[in-house]
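Below is how a single chain appears once it has passed through the pipeline. First comes the sequence as given, then the structure the pipeline wrote out for it. We keep one example in the README because the format questions we get most often are answered faster by looking than by reading.
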Amino acid sequence: MNLIEKILAKHANKTSVKPDEIIDVYIDSRAARDFGGANVVKNLLDNGLKVADPQKTVFTFDCNPGGSDQNYAKNQQYCRQFARENRIKVYDVDAGIGTHIAIDGGLVWPGSTFVSTDSHANIMGAIGTFGQGMGDQDIAAAWANGSVWFKVPHSVKLNFTGKKASNVSAKDIVLNLLSIFGANKLLSCSVELCGEAIDALTLDERITIASMATEMGAIILLFTPTPAIIEELEKKTGKHYDIIKADADSQYDKVIDIEIDKFVPMVAKPGHPHDNSPVASVLKVKIDSAFIGSCTNGRIEDLRIAASILKNRKIAPGVVLKIVPATDEIWQQALSEGIIKIYKDAGALVSNAGCAGCAAGQLGQNGPGEITISTGNRNFEGKQGKGSVYLASPAIVAASAIAGYITTPDDIPAIPSVFEQKEYLKKAAVIKKVLEEKPLVVEGRVWIINKDDIDTDMIYHNRYLTITDIKEMGQYSFDNLKGYEDFAKKAQPGDIIITAKNFGAGSSRQQAVDCFSSLGISCIIAESYGAIYERNAINAAMPILTYNPETLTNIDLKDGDKVKVDMAKGTITNLSNSKTAAINKFTDVQIDIYKKGGLLG
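Resulting structure:
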């Protein structure tokens, strides 16, 4: 077996597993964050469920350290109270990013399993651990049962050849990979990275690369631990670990050679992490702000690199540089090494540890018209505010903050650039009513949204994540998707959405499913789904189906046509011409969960 199969087989109590096999996976470590945690608790209480093993269960408050928002503060306290009642460990607002704490604190180890409401829980692949971000119902089930169902993914092996250039960082490696594979060519696959250049990567570098598996559409990017990585983990945790690796005769759907010596420093353009190009193509783009941190680049090595560039220099006038270490332990290490003083002397704003701008709960948000260069993992439109976000390595971000425009460390000008800020108005939301449960055969008007990679921030923006009442969610559906900002106003109960590849890419937020239930959308039909989104929809009894694009051409379907969908048989009929086409029907698991009204029914 390959690496993912070995881990899953062990935790399913099986001698072997194969791709597409649905198994029950035991979870070694089960986490919930401060925004998803409140809904996890609500799911448990509403369904009369108890926590199976408090010793393997934790809360991590990393989205809004300090509870600076009233709704976050309310949810955090709600989780604290539940934790006290059930003897659950809380890594509170002073601790940092939960996934990093899990690695550094020994909550996970090579070959273990981990789930969290964090869609970047697959960062655990950095140490050869199976990690998954999941929705609120999934996590509630894991807390109550100790295990969750999972479909064994197909595996791809990337074999890296050549030697990495000295100016190519770990962030550049993953941006180069995104340039090759985009957001859906590795969709729902487990990807193993191998080769001498990969073996030479440090733990921090592996974490950077693994943290962007979700942006590639992959289930996980897995690294085989080296003796050096094992030694570092053992030093951090005081525990003994064994190396886990794929069998010599392991099988993969594909083995792809990657010439790492051809990789160059990259920058992702605003909108999508995979819309990237060599840094040379965006040199001298003026910036308003810069950000160093996130689960992708908040490690001590990242902070050292930035400090080496900022030392004895000043940030450009009018530019704001925000820096957020990943954990408090890293923050303290940066303090002891003098790194924090370098940042402050340069004019940067340094925050306590946490996720920062990714969840709208800390430093890192930007305003209308603001141009930001960031070390984060996502730059979806609206993700970190109303401005535009470029993604790059810590070295490029630090150099750009000094220059006032995008540049490289070897091309920082003596005189920084100046610029003017812009502002834009904010649109108001609208309200829509709720429709109750739907049968296996539905009829409705079609919305054809022919776009790939519609992410969860486009579906349901992160500024609404504190809402827990499904009835209130529908009004915000698609209000961050260009051309469909008024979708919620125009949608009617029973409507059907037909869309393209990788629908629901990105975050693990359950609200991106529940908002359609709130509006009474009867089903969604897509070519493929983001892995977490697919689980969330199935678990929430929101009907989702897949199709082959060629089949729909035979029924002459147009936007606004009325159709009939039989989810059990797998057919769609255009009622305007009575033409019928085949689509992929519900699986047995999907029907079972749907009939129960959801995973926790």
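Residues 424-428, 430-436 have pLDDT under 50 and may be disordered.

See the next section for the split statistics.
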